[in-house]
Fold this protein.
Amino acid sequence: MFSLHRVATVLFALVSFTSIYIVYTIIYNVFIHPFRSVPGPKLYAISRFPWIKDWLSGNIHVSVQAMHEKYGDMVRVAPDEISCIRAEAWAEVYGHKGSKAFTRDFKWYARLTEGQDDIIVSTEADHSRFRKAFSASFSDKALKENEGIIMRNVALLVSRLQKHVRAGNDVADMIKWYNWCTFDVIGDLVYGSSFACLEKEEYHPWLGVVLQNIKLSSYGALMERYPAFKWLVNVLVPKSMLEMRNMHIGIIRSKIESRSEKQSTRRDVIADVSDTGDLTQGELEANLALITMAGSETSATALSAISYYLCRNESAFVEVKEEVRSTLRSEADITWDRVSELPYLAACIKEALRLYPPTPVGLPRRLMSDGTTVCGQYVPKNNVVYITQYSAYRSELNFLDAKSFRPERWLGDPKFESDQRDVFQPFIVGPYSCPGKSLAYMEISLVITKIVWTFDWALADEGSLAFENEKVYALWQKNPLNLKLSERPVR
Ligand code: HEM
């Protein structure tokens, strides 16, 4: 029989042990840990909870930026985690040199397909094999072939918008339209047929579920860190999201089937990968799911950002319209060869990616080898370092007038000579960098040129001003961006 005395003794022991553990952890983190001299708020150095609070509130990007503004280019954002905003850190952490020691932090990255590795979550050997299998799809030759596919979808985007404007429905939520367009493009490129979002003017169920649940998926990423609480995901996350994990496999399989029924002769990603014979069926499906998401949401974010910043910056908007509408003589001139030679447009795209990077938070890298240094700071094994793009690009340490949209900084204006342009890496660098970079630039440039060629626009409501202050749950949680479109006068 337990006596009251015994229960009290056990409780006392437990409380004492926990208290000693907490006090020891605080003393260790603040005074002994090799990151003890890295500046940052003490509470964040003591425990991970403040970071978790910021993460769950969708304000991690704002909070880390405030830390960099107060403490400088290297800050301690959690006991074992540093955010850095110096250009050298790209090579040291993400580049070929860094990747020998740093790997993606699998306490943060979650698999898109349950139980199946993909190019993002995989061992080093599998990652190289997956990259090799997809290399033909991201080659220059493939890029050239993809132009026609992109143009077909862009033409549909513009004709649908024109139809609405001509019918008097001149306000369009461009978040929706750009998501539909980039999702259709990726469907066409990967599976040989689009998802018909533009045609039906509705979200494909797969895309719809993913976008509605960006916030909840980021909770899932948190649970990778605390596996004991994984059951919480099942309670918090709606059934639709959990079902989505399996639903996308069904969609991919039916796309593959309808593709082989049509006996298409056109190259697509599936054909390229099948030729290598290097992937199992499960690996193929998981990677197709990953590319479908990685290749559409990011580009749609970039397109929305460019549209937003242009109409918020009158002189830049006037200049880009002038460049597009006078350099190109007719719509037939809207080709990648011609559009890639429009310097002001390219500068506007870069500037929008700088102020609104599609991956705004730090993509964490964990040191798996013995200790090393990053920007002169010693990093012990099993600790995490990253560059936080949102903070790096909005810091006056890196860019003059950092929070303003100034395309001329990319065009050799001497005023911006001191800008640290090397820190700007929206597609990151090294062996894990984005293989879709050239494709993304081509797609974004063609869409924006065609939109600028056809329409003038302005923000349609005050609510859309919130665009710049959206929450971030790993990705931007975007609310409607309503633009009032008008067809430009026929010349
Ligand atoms: C503006 C558009 C885009 C941006 C800013 C972007 C950015 C990025 C970034 C930062 C990463 C690294 C992720 C990490 O390490 O956690 C990445 C990876 C990746 N991206 Fe993109 N991306 C864009 C468009 C695309 C497109 C169009 C595709 C394909 C059609 C694509 C396919 C991929 C793939 C497959 C990976 C994984 C690479 C690997 O692990 O080796 N992305 N992207």
Notes: The radius of gyration is 24 Å.
